[in-house]
Amino acid sequence: MNLKLAAGSDPATTDGRDTVLTVTGLGKRYRGGRDNTWALRDCSFTLPAGSVTALVGMNGAGKTTLLSILAGLLTPTAGHLTLPSTGQGGADGARIAFVAQEKPLYRYFSVADMLQVGARLNRVWDQERALRWLRRFDIPLDRACGRLSGGQQAQVNFAIALGSRPSVLLLDEPVSTLDPLARSEVTAELLTEAADTGMTVLLSTHVVGELVGVADHLLLLAKGRLLAAGEIDTLLENHLHYVGPRADVPPGPGQVVWASHTDNQSVFLVRLPETGPVPPVDAPWTTRPVTLEEFVLAQLKKVRTAGEGEA
Amino acid sequence: MVELRVDRASGLPAYRQLMQQVREALRLGWLRPGDRLPTVREVVATSGVNANTVLKAYRELELAGLVEARQGSGTFVKASPGAGPRQAMTELREQLEKWVSGAHAAGLDNEDIQALLSAVLADNNRGSSQ
To answer: Strands of A225-231's sheet, edge to edge?
Structure first.
């Protein structure tokens, strides 16, 4: 049985897969900033090879700082990151590509010229892969980048990032400038590229509702700290809603993450204890599973409330 | 061939949605033993779902004995859930149709019926798990 399963599954994406990136105690403090505060503090996590991880958090939570450190554009104040390869950036090593929010294109360069720049700046370059992406989204190669729409400029950046054949692709709010159709098409194409090449993807986003089935792992940041990290299905299975009449405590086991009350109803979102199945609750209480969006919102609201308490 | 998709508004995890659609296709006869499921890549490209999610769904279906992965050629339907008691299915469906007409006659709309069904199923699950 096990043998057959192993034979049937894709080697790049089996369980217990390798780790492509390990981050330990990562922190960043901007000098001269307001109060000298930490933009990122004590962040430790791993990215499994071939995973698609969503980086979620409020504005100013430290998402872009984290991505910039992983991309090698910022030096961390504390901690370090480990790539499994020896020759980082070399042809055999882990290659990290970063698509930032502000798209770095030369206004007067044509799209074809930008690909030339990509080819010169990267030790490994797959021109056909970059061109395939541009053809897929009908981007004119001879047009000056400054005359492209925001969405088209984003596509040129995706093409250059993919052309560098990254083993880890970092995307800072990749679809925020795209129309609804392009959003879903770009998402599907990026996931297809990831499936074809075993590439690991880390993307930041605010649109949690669009992540269902797109990301398999979550990094949730608030105020520079990691609130939750792990496989999304596991995180959600470890949480539950109790819905019932107005009460001060939940009717079953679990640590309350968030509770909301009306005059005659209470809803508790709890983190379940590690051991054993959940005992059924007595009527009139009912249970209901937690969606990714509910999980994220509850965690963020909890942090905000705690912050108000401190102030 | 069935087209698998993910409803982002559904509360159900994506891999479970995929499993549910395959099981439903089996029950309704859209998929029969020997049929090939879409490849992981096909599902990723058409539905915008992550490959790991599709693999997880296929692995769970395989563990449930419904499909089997054949190296190099894809994932194939092995058995149908509820394919045995086909006679019972027909009878139950007829009873349900009568019951639904009765419910409509009594003034219930579809939403009422769904709420009632969910409540009864929940009670039933609770009874059987105790």
So the answer is: A96-99, A168-172, A200-204, A52-57, A217-222, A225-231
Domain count for chain B, please give it.
Answer: 2
Residue B6, domain member (yes or no):
no
Domain span at B42: 14-77
What CATH number does residue B19 fall under?
Answer: 1.10.10.10
The answer to whether the CB of A170 falls within 8 A of the CB of A95 is: no
Q: Do B11 and A288 make contact, defined as CB atoms within 8 angstroms? A: yes
Taking the C-alpha atoms of residue B102 and residue B116, their distance in angstroms, rounded to an integer, is: 14
Interface check for B23 against chain A (CB to CB < 8 A): the answer is: no
Residue B97 belongs to some domain of the structure: yes
3-state secondary structure of A231: strand
Interface check B32 vs A, CB under 8 A:
no
B102 min Cα distance to partner chain A (Å): 27
Tell me, yes or no, whether B18 and B72 share the same domain.
Answer: yes
Tell if the CB–CB gap between B50 and A216 is shorter than 8 Å.
yes
**Which residues from A are below 8 Å from B66, CB to CB?**
none
Domain-embedded: residue B29: yes
B39 in a structural domain? yes
Predicted TM-score (pTM) of this structure: 0.81
Q: Tens digit of pLDDT per residue, chain A (311 long)?
A: 233 222 333 333 334 568 888 999 999 988 776 666 889 999 999 999 999 999 999 888 899 999 999 998 899 999 988 876 544 444 456 789 999 888 788 889 999 999 999 999 888 999 999 999 999 999 999 999 999 998 899 999 999 999 999 999 999 998 888 888 998 899 999 999 999 999 999 999 988 888 888 999 999 999 889 999 999 999 998 999 999 999 999 988 889 999 999 999 999 999 998 876 777 788 789 888 899 999 999 999 988 888 765 54
